[in-house]
Amino acid sequence: MYMSKKVWVWIIVILVVILVIWKLPSLFGKSLGGFGLTSPTPSPTPSSNYVPGKKAAPTAGQTYDQTLAAYADRRIQFNEKCQGIPGQMVLKKGTKMMLDNRSKYVQTINLDGTKVILPAYSWQIVTITTKNSLPYNFGIDCKSDGGTTENGAMINLQALIGQ
Question: What number of CA atoms fall less than 13 Å from residue 16's CA on the CB side?
Fold first, then answer.
């Protein structure tokens, strides 16, 4: 079977295009995420610290990754549906923790009657306390355009020894 020059040219062009698409990620050191380009994640900026009854103070120059590492075991992350992850946590009274909004929506977090507003892709460090007797369980409610959850996360607040 004889193929014309035009057919051979098209076969070569198609092979070159396939090779370029296959090698393109390694040329730029980036992943194409399968068949489509991956979208960049917005760079979060820290919002101010929040302590109930006290004026907010700016985060002490920490990046998101530094804050994440510092509060890895004391962090509740809220997704686009306002669900807290992890769903339950045990903390001592007066412990600082990270509230982490990983959604494109502004979220209003209700901590036992105290509201904390988290802009999209931001976080706040809060001090967990209560005037109620300990141990004390309270739910964390969340509202945003992406969803609303009551008791989207639960904190079991324990007394420090000597309290």
Answer: 6
